[in-house]
Amino acid sequence: MLIGGQSVAVWLVSEAVDMRKAIDGLAQAVVDTLQRQPLSGEVFVFGNRGRDKVKLLWYDRHGFWLAYKRLERGHFRWPASGGAIDMTELTLLLEGIDLRVPRLRRVALQRVD
Questions:
Q1: What is the pTM of this model?
Q2: End-to-end CA separation in angstroms for the chain
Q3: Residue 87 structural domain
Q4: Which residue in 108, 42, 47, 53 sits closest to 79, CA to CA?
Q5: Which of 35, 40, 87, 101 pairs as cysteine with 1 (C-beta 3.0–4.6 A)?
Q6: Residue 81 lies in a domain
Q7: Please, what's the largest Cα pairwise distance for the chain?
C-alpha cells in the first residue's frame, strides 16, 4: 500500500475483532495477535464476526489513523489465514471479492466481423 508516497506493509488479522474497540484496543490486538508494533507505520486490517464491518489502523509520524467501513448488505469475503497481504488483495477484499478461493471462469468468445 502507498501512504505518503511510501510503500507500506498491510497485515490482515484473521480472527474476528470486537468493532467497539477504538485505536488503543486495536493497537493492543496488533501486538497480541500479530506480534507487530502498532507504531511501525504498517496498515492493520480487522473484521468483525459477521464480516460486514472492517477497520484499518495505521500510524504516521503524527498519530494514528482509523478507517471504518460497514456494509449495508452482504459481507466481506475474509481469508481463513491472516498475515501480510498486498494492496491489490486489500482492494479486492474491500470491494467484496473473495480472496479465499481463486475462481477461473470460461468465457465464450465470438468473432466479430
A1: 0.80
A2: 43
A3: 2-94
A4: 47
A5: 87
A6: yes
A7: 62
Report the number of distinct structural domains present in the chain: 1
- DSSP SS3 for 4: coil
Q: What is the rounded CA–CA span in Å between residue 107 and residue 73?
A: 28
Is residue 104 one of the residues assigned to a domain?
no
Asked whether residue 109 is domain-assigned, the answer is no
C-alpha neighbours within 13 Å on the C-beta side of residue 18: 9
Per-residue model confidence as pLDDT tens digits over 71-99: 998 888 887 778 898 888 898 889 887 76
Buried b (16+ CB within 10 A) or exposed e, 39-65: eeebbbbbbbeeebbbbbbbbeeeeee
Proportion of the chain in helix, strand, coil states, percent, rounded to 5: 20, 25, 50
CB 41 within 8 A of CB 52: no
Domain annotation covers residue 113: no
What is the C-alpha radius of gyration for the chain, rounded to an integer number of angstroms? 16
